[in-house]
Specification:
The protein is built from 19 helices and 9 strands. By secondary structure, it is mainly α. It folds into 2 domains: about 15-225, no CATH class; about 265-450, no CATH class. Strand 8 (about 435-440) and strand 9 (about 445-450) form a beta hairpin. Helix 3 (about 60-70) packs across helix 5, helix 10 (about 230-240) runs antiparallel to helix 11 (about 245-275) and helix 12 (about 290-320) runs antiparallel to helix 15. The mean pLDDT is about 90.
Length: about 450
């Protein structure tokens, strides 16, 4: 039933969206594809979607194994590093570059720990330890006969879908700007960190794969009916073309914004499947204490997860996959958990949900809020705070924060006006702390992505 379940998931969402590839893995996969096509000589976001992309893949396994477990690199240390102090310093540096994956109960092995792609030299693909099948392959790590295999493990297809969305942008002028901005994001930097990364790559246990065909990206389908592909294209362009921002900050914004868009796209596709309105608004709690808005945001989060499960069941029924529909089978009960986990896990990771599990409600944590401002306000663009709440958060993202947006969806009939006024004040303080909100008087507050602090 596993293959049947994957067929249903891909048929509904256009890609394999599973819990294993949630959150930051979406953007890591996207940047690995961008870097990989560039290295393969195809350029950034190639036009031809008629065939699978040829990409270059590298593992960065030596750096990731150093950050995880000394035993994994013991055999290579004598020739690759100079002295005990070098190892300790390098391990601390690499640990600071490990991408956090919230919600993990057990610290993963090196294959589940990825490096922040702050410079082009740090971008890498998935890789894991496997049992050697050829005598010519060099064993690595403490397990006899284990090798490093460059392959999909956490890169399940969400990043491939994002890549497909970006390179099929019908707005050629915007696509050109996005390509130009991404060139700088994945380019070699030749700085100190880049030189360290390059040296570590030379010690990898397996050489780069120079001619991999990425079938997942090729098979991804950009489903129509939601506004999220457009939001993603516009936002990525705005982020990557902010040349005044340090590259690391632009990368950080992409790491939060891209997965957020893919998860919201997933939810709207589920709503379309069930004949629901994709413009259903989401109440967002911006305060640090319980309130009626938080309760509404919790109920909305529960409704979203339920919608995903029901949509998957409906698509399986429409595709006549009987084994996935019968409620008496274990497969029918469990196969929907992982796609639902992608949604909740992704929004929890990037800061759109307050937690990875338990009672969860929609919120806007600082890192996500910063990425949304950088993505949805153009260079030099300014909005009044009221306009930002209504025309950006509500019109673009269908998020209800302030009293006027709440009035547009009749939320005020259930929740007192004062609650939304307090909620929007909390959002304003968060924007001010980020340097995006500038108060010129009690009545004039301007939101701009151009930070002056």
């Amino acid at each position: 039933m596993r293959l049947e379940a994957e067929t249903v998931v891909k048929n509904l969402f256009g890609a394999s969206l599973y819990d294993q590839g949630r959150g930051f893995y979406v953007c890591l996969e996207l940047l690995a594809l961008v870097w990989g096509t560039q290295e393969a000589g195809l350029g950034i976001l190639p036009d031809d979607v008629s065939k699978a992309l040829t990409i270059v893949r590298r593992s960065h396994d030596f750096a990731r194994r150093i950050a995880t477990n000394r035993a994994d690199v013991e055999a290579e240390l004598a020739t690759a590093l100079d002295g005990e102090g070098t190892f300790e310093t390098l391990q601390q540096l690499l640990n600071s570059l490990i991408v956090p994956i919230p919600g993990r109960r057990v610290v993963p092995s090196w294959g589940g720990r990825h490096l922040y792609p702050y410079v082009g030299e740090l971008i890498h693909y998935d890789a894991v330890s496997r049992r050697a099948t050829k005598a010519s392959l060099r064993p690595v790590g403490p397990r006899p006969g284990s090798i490093v295999s460059i392959e999909r493990y956490s890169f399940r297809g969400g990043g491939g879908l994002a890549h497909k969305i970006l390179r099929t942008d019908p707005n050629f002028a915007r696509l050109s700007e996005t390509r130009s901005g991404l060139v700088e994001i994945v380019a070699s930097s030749n700085g100190a960190l880049a030189r360290i990364a390059k040296a570590l790559t030379a010690a990898d246990a397996t050489p780069p794969d120079t001619d991999f065909l990425d079938e997942r990206e090729h098979e991804a389908v950009v489903k129509a009916g939601t506004g999220w592909p457009e939001v993603l294209r516009r936002g990525v362009k705005n982020i990557v073309t902010r040349k005044h921002l340090p590259r690391a900050r632009r990368v950080e914004a992409l790491m939060h914004f891209v997965p957020y868009c893919i998860a919201r796209h997933q939810l709207d596709l589920a709503r379309i499947e069930l004949g629901m309105n994709v413009d259903i608004a989401i109440p967002v709690d911006c305060r640090s204490k319980a309130s009626p808005i938080r309760e509404a945001a919790r109920l909305s989060a529960e409704e979203a997860v339920g919608t995903l499960g029901n949509a998957l069941l409906e698509r399986a029924r429409a595709m006549d996959v009987d084994g996935l529909v019968r409620p008496t089978t274990a497969q029918a009960r469990k196969w929907r958990d992982s796609p639902k986990g992608f949604f909740g896990g992704t929004l929890g990771t990037v800061g759109a949900l307050n937690a990875m599990a338990g009672k969860r409600h929609f919120c806007l944590r600082t890192d996500l809020l910063e990425s949304l401002v950088l993505a949805l306000l153009g260079p030099g663009e300014e909005r009044s705070f009221s306009s930002f709440c209504q025309e950006v958060l509500y019109d673009d993202l269908r998020l209800v924060v302030d009293d006027r947006s709440a009035g547009r969806v009749n939320a005020l009939t259930r929740i007192n006006l004062a609650e939304f006024e307090e909620n929007s004040r909390a959002l304003g303080l968060a924007l001010k702390d980020l340097g995006f909100l500038h108060s010129y008087s009690d009545a004039t507050q301007i939101v701009s992505a151009e930070v002056t602090q």
